[in-house]
Write a structure and sequence with these properties.
Layout: E1 6-10, H1 14-26, E2 30-34, H2 37-43, E3 51-55, H3 64-74, E4 78-83, E5 97-99, H4 105-112
Parallel strand pairs: 1-2, 1-3, 3-4, 4-5
């Protein structure tokens, strides 16, 4: 079995987390789900993570603070934001944001490629 890139999805909304996770899993990614940043970091401790998808609906989401915290604990991992807000998050590169209102699996896969 070929190596599957691991993606940690941190999202409070169960439905959204499962939808994104299932679609990525069908496209050959290994998915680890979490509803909080600390739980997610604990789940992947000592594993090599390809990408983190962080939802803004997480109760402990605090913009750039979480990104620095994740990188401090997981290394230089690529981070994407599932943005549930209507406006762009200024502190985060627009290419690293996926707006929920415009969410498409093709867009997610394009950004991860």
């Amino acid at each position: 079995m070929p190596y599957r890139k691991k993606i940690l999805i941190i999202e409070n909304d169960d439905f959204l987390r499962e939808i994104v996770g299932n679609l990525l899993h069908k496209n050959e990614y290994y998915i680890i789900n979490s509803s909080s940043v600390n739980e997610g970091i604990e789940k992947v401790h000592s594993q090599q993570i390809y990408t983190v998808i962080l939802g803004t609906s997480c109760l402990d989401y605090k913009d750039k603070n979480n990104i620095h915290y994740i990188k401090k604990n997981l290394g230089e991992v690529e981070i994407f934001i599932l943005n549930t807000n209507k406006k762009e998050i200024l502190e985060i590169d627009p290419e690293q944001q996926m707006k929920i209102s415009e969410l498409s699996i093709k867009e997610i896969l394009r950004k991860l490629a």
